């Protein structure tokens, strides 16, 4: 962990992200303050600003990447809205999205590893049980590349693994005015974080944001082999 910021608590970590302008909005600050990262990954590494392995060849992204994603989606994560978190893993970002969408919103977390879906449910139950009790979070097992049309369309979609090509199903499940954030590129090579907006009249606008490194968006069998 040499060279990474290492806080002693969730609040220390969040304040570090705010000081360094990774968290800019009050709503993202409130969500990341409310959702304790220590309940979604190993406590000894929870407040380090770096990715952490959570099993099955999967990582929970570095806190600054979660902050960046939430800031990009902030204007779409409004009370009563719907969001999809593809590759929901430990459930951390799904919970943050649900908090930002208020009592009438819905955040769907999808992962093709049943054990990760179960882990996410357990984590959220220990941190924010009301999100599950009130139906503000729904966790499903499935191929995130195909999205989850049963609950669409979505105002915000986040993809936590790198796609080799633009997942058409996710574009189709974006609501007019919605936004998709996903990393694109081959495994262990140049990847770029991409923002895709669907205009009110259905046009697609895409822009590249920054270079990133993510695990690949892949099928369940390959995922198990990576674990």
Automatic annotation (TrEMBL):
Location within or outside the cell: Cytoplasm
Its EC number(s): 2.1.1.77
Keywords: Cytoplasm, Methyltransferase, S-adenosyl-L-methionine, Transferase
Biological process terms in GO annotation: methylation
Record GO terms (molecular function): protein-L-isoaspartate (D-aspartate) O-methyltransferase activity
Catalytic activity: [protein]-L-isoaspartate + S-adenosyl-L-methionine = [protein]-L-isoaspartate alpha-methyl ester + S-adenosyl-L-homocysteine
Gene Ontology annotations for the cellular component aspect, listed alphabetically: cytoplasm
Record Pfam families: PCMT
Record-linked NCBIfam families: pimt
Sequence similarity: Belongs to the methyltransferase superfamily. L-isoaspartyl/D-aspartyl protein methyltransferase family.
The protein's name in its UniProt record: Protein-L-isoaspartate O-methyltransferase
Species whose genome carries this gene: Dinoponera quadriceps (South American ant)
């Amino acid at each position: 962990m040499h060279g990474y910021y290492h806080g002693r608590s969730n609040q220390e970590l969040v304040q570090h992200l705010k000081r360094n302008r990774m968290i800019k909005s009050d709503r993202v600050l409130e969500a990341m303050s409310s959702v304790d990262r220590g309940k979604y990954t190993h406590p000894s590494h929870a407040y380090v600003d770096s990715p952490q392995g959570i099993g099955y060849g999967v990582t929970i992204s570095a806190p600054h990447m979660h902050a960046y994603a939430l800031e990009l989606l902030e204007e779409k994560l409004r009370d009563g809205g719907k969001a999809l978190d593809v590759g929901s893993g430990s459930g951390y970002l799904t919970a943050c999205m649900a908090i930002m969408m208020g009592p009438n919103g819905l955040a769907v977390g999808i992962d093709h590893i049943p054990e990760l879906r179960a882990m996410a449910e357990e984590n959220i139950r220990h941190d924010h049980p009301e999100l599950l009790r009130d139906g503000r979070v729904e966790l499903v097992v499935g191929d995130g590349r195909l999205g989850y049309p049963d609950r669409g369309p979505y105002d915000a979609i986040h993809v936590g693994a790198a796609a080799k090509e633009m997942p058409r199903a996710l574009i189709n499940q974006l609501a007019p005015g919605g936004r998709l954030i996903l990393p694109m590129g081959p495994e262990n090579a140049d990847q770029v974080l991409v923002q895709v907006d669907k205009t009110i009249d259905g046009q697609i606008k895409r822009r590249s944001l920054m270079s990133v490194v993510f695990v690949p968006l892949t099928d369940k069998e390959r995922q198990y082999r990576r674990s």
